[in-house]
Amino acid sequence: MLNKYIFALLILLNVGCSQKEISEDEKQLNMYFAEKQKINLADYKNYVVVVISGNCGSCTEKTIKFINRMGDPKNEKFKGIKKIVIVPDNNASVLDSMKNKSIQFIVDKGYEMQKYGVNFAKNTFFEFHDGTLVYQDVLYLENIDKIAKKYNLIL
Question: Edge to edge, what strands does the sheet with 46-51 contain?
Fold first, then answer.
């Protein structure tokens, strides 16, 4: 009888330990997409999200180059990966320089992202595989070059 309880307890512990830990940034992104954009990110197997902060003019210029290269249909690294770019209202004019059919652009009107806790001081890049965050970094000045190199993008 005691063995049954120990066995049940071991199963519960195993199930509890096998659940992935989700970062606060990931939770906030998921909530923003689900509630405000009506997008369930779990519907996508592999995807990247770029959040343009609207606070950095010089790094946004390089971020635009990065996004344009990422969305290039000849780029094998991002082929078959859903690409989403969120641009705040105050920076929506940058969309004119990022026309790309392979990227979904979302304009965050009224800074709704901040209401969901998505408030990055710098442009931020997220990469998800099988719904799990595998890479996150800021797209900031020389750091953009490092990230671009990681993905074989020439800026």
Answer: 103-108, 82-88, 46-51, 124-129, 132-138
Q: What pTM, to 2 d.p., does this model score?
A: 0.79
User: 21 versus 85: which is more confidently predicted?
Assistant: 85
For residue range 121-146, list pLDDT tens digits in order: 788 999 999 888 899 999 888 899 99
| Mean pLDDT taken over the chain | 80
Q: Where are the domains of the chain?
A: 22-150
* Cα gap 87→58, rounded to integer Å: 15
Q: Which of 33, 87, 36, 38 is nearest to 60 (CA)?
A: 87
**Core vs surface per residue 117-140: b (16+ CB within 10 A) or e:** ebebebbbbbbbeeeebeeebbbb
CATH fourth-level superfamily of 22-150: Glutaredoxin (3.40.30.10)
For residues 127 and 135, is the Cβ–Cβ distance under 8 A?
A: yes
User: How many CB atoms sit inside 10 A of residue 58's CB?
Assistant: 9
Q: Residue 97 CA to chain centroid, in angstroms?
A: 20
